[in-house]
Specification:
single chain, 240 residues, mainly alpha
Length: 240
């Protein structure tokens, strides 16, 4: 009887160690991607020469490269998501790195609109908010699955609203969209971390599939962080 108890205890400890290793890898990939994005965004955003490759600084219109940089990240996300089973973990990681670099170039546009100080302050607030919600998602005993479904429906709703407002140009509607965006991505952060924790509890340590799941999980959290940052920037950003 004592031996059975010991085996069960050891099994839980091993499972817990694998889960922690998986989550650690997810956040390592995510933070590395954010670092790449941040460095490149600042590099381009602080150089008029580099920005001129993306946008005509006199007319404000985007160049051909600028249009590519703006839309290419979406293609990378789709490839990484739908070709997940066919891609190796190395190719998936390389795509994630390339995606992070493109996002950095794309986000450099914010330096044309907002002051550097407000961008830094918003990034700090985003980091704290993200950290708190990630901790909530990892430690809570509440099942967030139902909340996740509601949040995804809300996400689809704000995407539709953003498309509509692109034609209307309503500042009030933009403010409402921004408020909802902050709430949705704050909630999605907790939901995604809890989902990844459950995935980590059932994976095989060191396997190819586990590595791929960690990279895809990092992509999800990366998107939560970036979108939360951009929606908060609409509130906190001081325009030039």
């Amino acid at each position: 009887m004592k031996q059975d108890i010991t085996i069960k205890k050891d099994g839980r400890e091993i499972s817990g160690a694998i889960e922690q290793s998986f989550i650690s890898n997810v956040f390592t990939y995510m933070f590395a991607a954010l670092a790449i994005t941040g460095v490149i965004a600042y590099w381009f955003g602080s150089s008029a020469t580099l920005l001129s490759y993306l946008v005509n600084l006199e007319t404000g219109g985007m160049t051909g490269l600028g249009i590519f940089v703006a839309f290419a990240p979406l293609a990378f996300v789709l490839v990484m998501s739908f070709a997940f089973n066919r891609l190796s973990s190395l190719i998936l990681l390389l795509l994630f790195i390339a995606y992070s670099a493109l996002m950095g170039m794309s986000l450099s546009f914010i330096f044309l609109i907002y002051t550097s100080a407000s961008i830094v302050n918003t990034f700090a607030v985003t980091s704290v908010t993200f950290g708190i919600m990630a901790l909530v998602g990892y430690t809570t005993k509440t099942d967030l699955t139902k909340f996740g479904s509601i949040l995804f429906m809300g996400l689809i709703g704000i995407i539709v609203a953003m498309v509509i407002n692109w034609f209307i140009g309503s500042e009030t509607m933009e403010m409402i969209i921004s408020m909802l965006g902050v709430l949705i991505f704050t909630g999605l952060t907790a939901y995604d971390v809890q989902k990844l924790k459950r995935i980590g509890a059932g994976v095989e340590y060191g396997s190819e599939t586990t590595n791929k799941l960690a990279i895809l999980g990092a992509l999800n959290l990366y998107l939560d962080f970036i979108n939360l940052f951009l929606f908060l920037l609409r509130f906190m950003g001081n325009r030039k």
